[in-house]
Amino acid sequence: MKKIGIIGGISSASTLHYYQMLHDLFYEQYHHYYYPEMVIESLNFQYFTDLENENKLDEYKQYILKSFHNLERAGADFAIMAANSPHSVLEEIRNDIPIPVLSIVDAVGQKARDLGLKKLLLTGIAYTMRSNFYQTGLAKYGIEVITPTVEEQEIINKIIFSELVINLATEASKQTFLKIISSYSVDSVILGCTELPQLLSQNDTDHCLLNSLQIHCEKTLKYVCNR
C-alpha cells in the first residue's frame, strides 16, 4: 500500500479526525489491522491563519510547498491536506510539488456529480467562502457553488475559530448554523471546513450534507489501495 502524507495541524482537531477516520474506514472495508502507513507534517496553526488573513500569498504558498517536500523526504508516496483552505493555492503550486496530491475539492466535486447535485451552498471559514477555488473547481463538473452572505460568513467563521478548532461544539452554535443554511434553496450544503462535521451530522437537517472530511478520506483510501 502507498504511504500517506498528511499536511495537518490546521487545525489539530481536524487532523485527529482525519487520522481516526482513515483507520476506521479502512477497518470497515477490510476487517484487519494492516493499516496504511502515514506521516503527518503538523503546521503552525496561528502562523498559517495569519498568512491567510493578511493575504500574504507568497509566504503562504512557500509554507505549504515546503511541507509537501518534507513529506516526500519522510517517505510519503502521495499527500493530502487535512483542511480546505490551503486548496486555494494548490493548482498554483502543484507543478512544484514532488509527490501526487489528492484534492479535497476534486473529491467533493466527484461526489456531488455522482449524486446528481447541481447547486451547492459552501460553508467553511471566511477565507474559504470568500475565495473562488470551490467555484472554479466544481464548475468542471457542471456544479454551481454559492456562499452565505458576508454577515453569515463571519458568524460561521467565529463558530469555527472560537469552538470547533479546540474541539468544542455548542448546541447554540449548531442551531445558529442550521438557521443559516435553512434559508437557502440548494441541492446540498458543503461542509467545507474539516472541523464542521463536529458541529452537526446528516441527522440534524433535511439538507443533504457533503462532509468534505469524510469524502476526502474515502478517496484517499481508494488511492492507497489502488481502487
TrEMBL record:
<dbReference type="InterPro" id="IPR033134">
    <property type="entry name" value="Asp/Glu_racemase_AS_2"/>
</dbReference>
<comment type="similarity">
    <text>Belongs to the aspartate/glutamate racemases family.</text>
</comment>
<keyword id="KW-0413">Isomerase</keyword>
<dbReference type="InterPro" id="IPR004380">
    <property type="entry name" value="Asp_race"/>
</dbReference>
<dbReference type="InterPro" id="IPR001920">
    <property type="entry name" value="Asp/Glu_race"/>
</dbReference>
<dbReference type="GO" id="GO:0047661">
    <property type="term" value="F:amino-acid racemase activity"/>
</dbReference>
<dbReference type="InterPro" id="IPR015942">
    <property type="entry name" value="Asp/Glu/hydantoin_racemase"/>
</dbReference>
<dbReference type="Pfam" id="PF01177">
    <property type="entry name" value="Asp_Glu_race"/>
</dbReference>
<protein>
    <submittedName>
        <fullName>Aspartate racemase</fullName>
    </submittedName>
</protein>
